[in-house]
Amino acid sequence: MSSYSCICGKVKVEYSGNPMFVAYCHCVECRKTCAAPYFHGSGFPKDNVKIVNGESTGSFAAKQMPRHFCKDCGTYVYGNAGEFYVLPCGLMDKPPAAQFHIWTSEKAIPVLPEDGLPRFEQGPK
User: The CENP-V/GFA domain covers which part of the protein (predicted)?
Assistant: First the structure.
């Protein structure tokens, strides 16, 4: 079992196993959520994730998925994509490598990194 927490430590996310996918997301919602030109996120089955002290999270409804944050420090701690959770790799001690870029049609920076990863204008098919 691996874990990470928000800045103040009130909310902890425990996860196990390998992610279903790891992506760099360039959608507007992810960029605004993480205040960066793109988001490094990993999708984990819900059975592999435990939210500790989840009552300390707030959420906001976004077009793509509800996003949950710590009510005290504001750290974005996970997204609820229905069948799986999206965990921010930036909070992990050993983040997994991204496998592809998604939502490049909404990118903020004019040139994407030359990393050789597949690129999808929306989500992968």
Answer: 1-121
List all residues 6 or more positions away from 54 whose beta carbon is below 8 Å from its beta carbon.
11, 68
Look at residue 88 and tell me if it is in a domain: yes
Using CA atoms, how far residue 72 sits from 55, 56, 118, in Å, is 11, 8, 37
pTM: predicted TM-score of the whole model, two decimal places: 0.88
Asked if residue 112 belongs to a domain, the reply is no
CATH number of the domain at 8, please: 2.170.150.70
* Close Cβ partners of 79 (under 8 Å, ≥ 6 residues apart): 41, 64, 65, 66, 67, 68, 85, 86
Structure tokens given for 5:
């927490």
Instruction: Classify residue 115: in a domain, yes or no.
Output: no
Q: What is the pLDDT of residues 40-88, one digit of tens each?
A: 999 999 999 999 987 888 888 877 789 999 999 999 999 998 889 999 9
* pLDDT given at position 124: 64
Residue 114 bridge partners (DSSP): none
**Domain range for residue 15?**
2-106
